Amino acid sequence: MFKVFSCLVNEHDYGMVAVAALVCLCASLTAFRLYSRMNGARGLARAAWLLFTALVAGSGVWATHFLGMLAYDPGVKTGFTPTGTIMSLMVAVLFMAAGFFAAAANRERDIANQLAGGLLIGLGVGAMHYTGMSSFVTQGVIVWEAATIGASVMLGVAGASAALLLAGDSRGMLRQALGGVTLTLSVCALHFTGMGAITMVPDATIVVPDQLFSGGLMTLAVTSITGLIVLAGLGAVFIESQTTQSALERIRTLANAAYEGIVVVQQGTIKDANAAFCEMAGASLETLVGKPLMDGMLTFDDSRGVHTDGADRREGRMQPIDGGRSIPVEIFARLMDDGLRAETRGLTVLAIRDLRERRSAEEKIRYLAEHDGLTGLPNRNALQARLAATLDRVDASGERLSLVCIDLDNFKEANDLHGHLAGDAVLVETARRLQESVTSPSFAARLGGDEFVIVYVADQDHDQATAAAELAGRLLETLREGVQYEGQELAMAASLGVSLFPDDGRTGEALLANADMALYRAKESGRGAYRFFKREMDESIRERRNLARELRQAIIDEDLVVHYQPQARACDGEICGFEALVRWKHTTRGMIPPIDFIPLAEETGLIVPLGEWVLRKACAEAAQWTKPLSIAVNLSPLQLNQPNLPALVHSILIESGLSPARLELEVTESALFKDYQRALDNLRRLKALGVRIAMDDFGTGFSSLSTLQSFPFDKIKVDKSFVENIHRDARATVIVKAVLGLGRSLDIPVVAEGVETDEQLQFLRGEDCAEVQGYAIGRPAPADTLSAWTHGDAVGFIVTDPAVVIAKLVEAKAPRRRKKAA
Ligand code: C2E
Ligand code: CA
Ligand code: CA
Asked: What is the pTM of this model?
C-alpha cells in the first residue's frame, strides 16, 4: 500500500493525473448514459448502443491508462510500442462490450448478471492495463509484484461491479452518475495500484528506440481519439434524448388534453398521471407520484380487482385526497408491460372517466321521465312503477291499499276563462293539497291534465272502506277551497272515484281502471262527490270499450253514412246549403246517432280518421251536385289540432274537385281552447285555401266576444238550445237577440240551429237572422233523397213530415227552368 502511495506521490505528474482522472470520469459518465439507452432498446438499436457504450468506456479507460502512464516519470527515457498500444485499446473495448452485454443480458437484472458484467469489465480494465504496460519501453528493468497485481485487478472487478449495481437500468441521471464515478474510481484504483506493483531498476544499456510513440505524440493522439469518441457518444445521447424528450412532451400534452384521467401505476403506486387525473384526485402530480392508487383513492364497485385487458370496463369511485366528495368513475385498465422493454415493466395504465356529469344528466332525465314538470308529482309512468311496488309490499305484509282517482270539476272552463297560467296555478295548488293530505308510504301522482291519483296505504286497525271514505271526504273538502290567483279567487271542486285492494282488483291497472270508472260515475251524478267502485260499473265500461273497438272496425269497413241537413236563407226560405252529419249503420243495433259515438271517438282519437272519412265523403258527394250549394262539415277539437289538417283539406278539395268556396267547416269554441295558437294557425291556413269557417254551437262556450274577434269567422251558428227556448224562456230570447246583434255589429251572418216551429222561424226572420236550420226546414237525410234540391229545381223547405208542414214560403218563387240536368 505504501508502495502504491509513494509511487503515486513521488513518481507522477499531478496535473497529468488529474487530466487522466477527468478523461476517465467523462468517458464513464457518457458510457453509463449510453448504457441506459441500450437498456431501453431492442435489436439493432440495442447492438448499436452496446457498441457505443463499449467504445466510449473502452477508449476512455484506455486513455486514462495512457495519460496515467504519461504522468508517470520514472526519471529515465520512456516510450510505447505501437502494437501494444493499439492492442490494449482493442482489449479494453472488447472487454467493455462483453461486460456491459453480460450485465444487461438478463431482463430481470439479477445481481449475478451485474457481478458477471463487473467481473468482465474489471478484468478488461486489468487486461488493458497490463497489455498497455507491455508496450511500455523504458531504460530500465521492470520488476513485477504478483500480489499487488492481483489486488489491482480485484479492485477493478469490485469497482466495476459496484458501478453496474449502482447505475442499474435507471434512466435517472443520478444513478448513472454514481455508476460513472464508481467506475472512474475503480479504473484509477486499478491503474495506480498496478503502477505500484512495478519497481523500476534503471539500466543504461537498454536503448529506447526513437521510432516508438513519444510522450507528446501519445498525449495528443490519446486525448483526441478519446475526446472524439466521447463527443460522438454524448452526441448520440443528446440526439436520442432530444427526440424522446419531444415525443414524451407530445404524449404528455396529449394526455393532459384528454378528458379522462390517465394514471400510470407500477406495483400499485402511482408513477405518472395527467392533469385530468390530478384534478380528480385533488392533488398535484408531485404529491401523487409514489402514492398507492388502490389504497382508498380508487375503489371498484365490484370486488374483482384490476383486470388489465383494455376491454374491461369497470365502474367505481375516486376519493380525492383533499377530502372532497367521492366521484363516480368508469375505469379502463391496460397493462403496458409488453415483456420486451424494461421501462414498461410492471406498468399498468388506467383511464378514469369522471361520470359525475353523465350521472347527473341521467338523474335529470330519470327525474323528468318520472315526474310531472308542472307539479313535481310522480307522473303516470312513475305511478305505475311505484304502485306495482307498493302492491307487492302490501300484498306480502297484509296491509290495505286504496286508490283514489281525482278529477277537477270545471277545470277546463276555468282554464278557458282565466287563461293557462291560472289553470297551472290551480293544478300546482291541487298537487300541493293532495300531497299534504297523505304521508308516506301513501303518495299522490298526476296522470295528466286535471287528473290526479292518490295511492293510500290505510292503517291496518281501520276498516279499509271507512278509512278510504274518510280520506275521500277530506280530499273533497280541501279541494273545495278556492285558489288565489292574481288577486282573484278561482273556484275549485273535484270528483273522486275510489277502488280498494284486493276487492276491486289485484293489479295496479285494474285498480286504476276501476277507480276511474267510479270517478266517471261521480261526475255523472253531479260532480263534487266521491263514489266507490261497484261491480255493475264494470259492465257499462266494458260496453264502451267494445263500442270503441267496433267503431274502429266500422271506420275501416265504411259502416258509416253521411246525412245532409238543409240550411235555408231566412228571408225567402231558399235552400243554400247542407250540413253533413254522420251516422253509424251498426249491424245489430241499427242506426246509431252521433251523440252516442262522437264523444267516444273524440276520447279514443278515432275521430281523426272518422272526421277525415266524413270530410272526404261529403266533399265528393257535394262535388257531384249540379247546384253549387254549400256543404258544411263539422270539425272536432282533436281534428282542429292536427298539424296536417290544412294539407288534408287541400288534398281532399283537389281530389274531389269541389270549389273551396263551397266548403264550410264548423268548429266549436271549445275546439279553439285545446291549443289556441295551433287552432288559430290551422284556421288561418284553411281560410287561405278559400274555405269558410263557421262558429258552431255559439252561446254555450265562454268569452264569446273575444273568440269572435280573434278570428274572422264567416258564420255564427246560434246553438239550438237557445232557439228551442225562444218562446219559453225570456233569457233564451235575450241571448238569441244579443247574438244576432253581435253578428250584425261584427258583420258576420248568423245561422239559427234547431228551428222546429213556424213561430221560431217568424221570430228569427223578424230579427234579421240570415239563415235557418232545423226540422222545420228539413231533417238530416241521405243524399239520394235530396236530389230534387241538389240536382233539380226544388229550392224550398224539405219538410216531408205532414205533421210539421209549415208554410212553404218559397214554393211561390218556383218554377224556374226545369230539368237542366236529368
Ligand atoms: P251539431 O253540429 O250541432 O249538429 C246539429 C245537430 O242538431 C244534429 O244532430 C241534427 O240532427 C240536430 N238537429 C237539427 N235540427 C234540429 C231540430 O230542429 N231540433 C233538434 N232537436 N235537433 C236538430 P246529430 O246529427 O245527432 O249530431 C249531433 C252532433 O254530433 C252534431 O251537433 C255535431 O256536433 C256532431 N256531429 C255529427 N256529425 C259529425 C261529424 O261528421 N263530425 C263531427 N266532428 N261531429 C259530428
Ligand atoms: Ca254543426
Ligand atoms: Ca251546432
From this structure: 0.45
